[in-house]
Structures are given as C-alpha cells and as structure tokens.
Amino acid sequence: MDRTKLHPMNALLLAMAMPLHAGPDDFSAGPLIAVFGKTAEVPDAAKLPQSTRFKHAFDVAEVGPTDAPNRHFDSAARFLNMHARAGIPAEAMQLAIVVHGPAAMDLVSAERLGRDNPNAALIAALIEAGVSISLCSQTAAYRDIKARDLLPGVELALSAMTKHALLQQQGYTLNPW
Fold first, then answer.
1. Residue 57 near residue 177, CB atoms below 8 Å
2. Digit-coded pLDDT (tens) for 53-111
3. What's the helix, strand, coil split of the chain in %, to 5?
4. Omega before 89 cis (within 30°)?
5. Residue 13 and residue 10: Cα distance in Å, rounded?
C-alpha cells in the first residue's frame, strides 16, 4: 500500500480543516473612503490599542497612470480604511500627502491637464476625509503650475522639503512605501 497518497475522503477532510486565505474578492473600500482604498478584513491581525493615534505623511513623487488613480494616493485611502476597520476612529488619524516631481500633474485640473484627471475623485474624497494634500511650489514653478490649476483643496507648500520638516516637527511619521 502506498502511504504517500491520501485517500480522497481524507484529502477532502484535510482541505476542509485548512484555514481559508483572503483573495482579491475579499477586498472592499470603506468605511471612511468609499470606492477607493480597498482592504481586506484580517481577523488574526494583532489588535491595536484603543489609545492608538496616527499622524502619518506620504511622500509622492511618482506620477500615476493616465487612466487610473495614482497608487500612492490610494495608499492613503487604504491606510484610513484599514485602520478604521481595525477600530481606530477617524478623528484619531491625521494624514498628509506631500507631492513633488512628476506626480505634480496628478493634482491638476482637467482643464490644465487637457483630459480628465483620474485622480480627481480620489483627491476630493481624501480632502473630504481631512487629509492634507500639498504640492511643492518649487515643482509647481518648474512645471509652470499655478494655484488656479490645482484640484480643489490642494495647497501649495514652499517646498516638499519644508513641508516634511514642518510635519516632522508636528509629530508626523513618514510612510516608507
């Protein structure tokens, strides 16, 4: 008898006993940012203390695709949704996005861009959720972007370096991804 093979019934029982893993269909948006920032529920993840507070900054220099939102902006939405699902209240999360370099074009209006901006709805949702979004004015000057060219709610900072220094002084941590 070959003991390296499982009887079909034993194989079925073993498969039923194995934990199920999340797949792409297990990701959904919300609760803070609808449509964007899809995350999965992970019941086995370590629980966060009730006292958890976040002051977190994202640095974005990489431009997104012309037909979809910039994945770095979506990461901020994921951060909010994931932690809200984990029980962190919205008021305990302060996020900032600092944009410079080629990504500056992801913050301009459709009129300035010459086509629809696939980031417009996500930027509006992030700003509505209280996320601060700043564009480096040095980048803006280099790319001839004026304040009137920006999506509503996007602010001009003196520079990305200055904005990050100020955020660090205010206790923000920098997202390494």
1. no
2. 999 999 999 999 999 999 999 999 999 999 999 999 999 999 999 999 999 999 999 99
3. 40, 15, 45
4. no
5. 5
- 144/127 Cα distance (integer angstroms): 24
Three-state secondary structure call for residue 16: helix
Q: Apex CA 90: angle with CA 176 and CA 147, to 5°?
A: 65
Domains of the chain, earliest start first: 8-174 (3.40.1260.10)
Is residue 167 within 8 Å of residue 96, measured between CB atoms? Answer: yes
Q: What is the pTM of this model?
A: 0.85
59 exposure class (CB count in 10 Å sphere: 0-12, 13-18, 19+): buried
Give CA angle at 123 (43, 60), nearest 5°. Answer: 80
